[in-house]
């Protein structure tokens, strides 16, 4: 995990190789509030599922997918604030 001080993003996830088992590098904005950092960590964690289940898309250059971003936001919210019945 790496923190960047002068950065215009909340975070990013970068694969360390061409396969899921080679891991990822998580980069976070050092100036973000702690609660935002936690949400961003959870959001980026959710992206790893896409690398595992659709590697033919994720391990090559691709545009940001708004649907994937929305799912990762939902997943992060569920991880951090699960709804109890």
- Average pLDDT figure: 91
Structural class: alpha+beta
Shape: globular
Percentage of residues assigned to helices:
40-55%
Point out poorly predicted stretches. none
Range of strand content: 15-25%
Please tally the helical runs, counting DSSP H or I stretches of 4 or more residues.
3
Strand runs, count: 3
Could you give a short account of the major beta sheet? 3 strands, mixed
The radius of gyration computed from the alpha-carbon positions, rounded to a whole number of angstroms, is 13 Å
SSE pattern, N- to C-terminal: EEEHHH
Amino-to-carboxy terminus distance: 35 Å
Main-sheet strand order equals: 1-3-2
What descriptive keywords fit this protein?
85 residues; alpha+beta; 3-stranded mixed β-sheet; 3 helices; 3 strands
Mind explaining what this structure looks like?
The protein is of the alpha+beta class. Helix content is 46%, strand content 16%. The chain has helices at residues 34-53, 55-58, 66-80; strands at 2-4, 11-15, 24-29. It has a three-stranded mixed sheet with strand order 1-3-2, covered by helices on one side. The model has no long low-confidence stretch (mean pLDDT 91).
């Amino acid at each position: 995990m790496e923190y960047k001080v002068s950065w215009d993003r909340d975070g990013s996830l970068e694969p360390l190789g061409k396969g899921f088992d080679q891991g990822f590098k998580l980069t976070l904005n050092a100036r973000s509030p702690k609660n935002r950092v936690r949400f961003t960590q959870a959001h980026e964690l959710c992206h790893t599922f896409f690398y595992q289940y659709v590697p033919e898309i994720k391990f090559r250059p691709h545009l940001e997918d708004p649907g994937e971003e929305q799912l990762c936001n939902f997943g992060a919210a569920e991880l951090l604030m699960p709804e109890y019945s």
